[in-house]
Amino acid sequence: MQTLFWTSLTIGILIQRSSARLLDDHCKTSTGMRVWNGENAELKAAAWMAGVRNETNFLCGGTVIHKRFVLTAAHCIKDQGNLFVRLGAYNLLLPVVEYSVSNAVIHREYFSETGQNDIGLLQLPLNIVFTGQIYPICIDLNPTEKREVENANTLDAYGWGKTRTANISEILQRVTLQHYNPRRCNRIARAPLTLNQICAGSLDRDTCKGDSGGPLIQKLNYNGTRHLTQLGIVSYGSESCKGLGVYTDVTSYAEWIDEQIKALFSKYSRQSSPTGKNVDKM
Q: Is residue 118 among the annotated active site residues?
């Protein structure tokens, strides 16, 4: 990151919640965390981060959201061949475990020309064993969660993307960004932002190449305990990685995520496809 990267973000607003509907309750293990001009993330941030690669290159970030699924950006996994995810990798070169991807799903209405609906899922052939080093980030399926995006002032982003001194950061980085009115991003956007996208940035920091697919995160209060909840996905920004970036609003796709996981988990749960060649549009 350049206190920049395409990465994940944490928002420091504390909100009491009683109507949360979490995708996976194991995410409650996560109680706190920390890329152009970024700083090293806290070690436990690596627990829900995923490094996505193909057979030759590191591609993007992602997040563990379920025992069989990683959430990422559609553009990261389109036409990439066999895919793999590294988990528990505070140091990208030293993951706790690496899984092949058995099925890659991109939103059927993803358009690279506009960057809209830039969201995808990676299904693993085996269940992730959750430990103190690997567990999911919270995804709140409650439709009212979108208000938390609208009310957020700052967001923290995480990733291994380009920094001022290297094309890839081996150590997971964190950056805090300002949440802006969508109109502010229209000057760098491929198309006017929709209600399903987030505009964020900073004068001296941003997400950058390699941070795509990583999360935007906010710390929310569930029954008196704060847990990190994913609100966005790093999508795209300026080539210079300075100032503004466009992010997919995860809360707008909560129903899609839930439906895809229920359908895919049932369809593929008894199959193992270590080559990761299946790519669906759903």
A: yes
**Reported confidence tier of residue 204, pLDDT bands at 50, 70, 90:** low
* pLDDT tens digits for range 2-47: 543 333 333 333 334 445 678 777 775 543 333 334 445 567 778 9
Q: Cα–Cα distance between 279 and 168 in angstroms, integer?
A: 27
Catalytic site includes residue 75 = yes
Annotation marks residue 212 as catalytic: yes
**pTM for the model:** 0.83
Options 102, 212, 235, 252, the catalytic residue: 212
| Residue bearing the bigger pLDDT, 107 or 11 | 107
Q: Which of 75, 107, 179, 227 is catalytic?
A: 75
Domains of the chain and CATH, by start: 10-270 (2.40.10.10)
Nearest one of 243, 276, 256, 282 to 79, comparing CA atoms: 276
